[in-house]
Amino acid sequence: MDGNRGRDRRFPGTAVCGGEWASGYPARSRPLLTWDRSMTDAAARARARLRQELSGHPAGDRLVELVLIAAGELVANAHEHAPGPYQLRLTAGPVPRIEVLDRGSGLPPRAVARARTAQGLGLGVAGRGRGLIMVHRATGGAWGSRAVAGGHSVWAELGGR
């Protein structure tokens, strides 16, 4: 989505059909990237924006790398499995929280259970199906999903456990 086309001027950086996403977030939470299906490099752009935003974070480079891993997986999952538009949000602080919003109905319970109980990364077919397992490991289990107005959100907190 480019320019102001498809944007809600009340919530800069938020798509019109996602304007309600902006309500209920703390002031330090802000959208970093809003995209639709036509943006095929969304995960790479999300990682670049987060790297820029978290540069010099007091927790160090290791935390930033974990944030980038989790964000890349959450963005790719949303883009592949849910209708758009999509939005990546960052709540900055000692424990950064990333959140990816989409127009989907939520994570399948089976996918959540598999991610929370997997002993290894050997699950999945042809190198697929491991994204939430990676998020679970990167966050030490500090991730989840929730319904939001008009869609769904998957969040992850890093460095708090």
Automatic annotation (TrEMBL):
InterPro entries: Anti-sigma-factor_SerPK, HATPase_C_sf
Keyword Ubl conjugation on entry: no
Segment forming the signal sequence: none
Domain of life: Bacteria
GO terms assigned for molecular function: ATP binding
Keyword annotations from UniProtKB, A to Z: ATP-binding, Nucleotide-binding
Name of this protein: ATP-binding protein
Species whose genome carries this gene: Streptomyces monticola
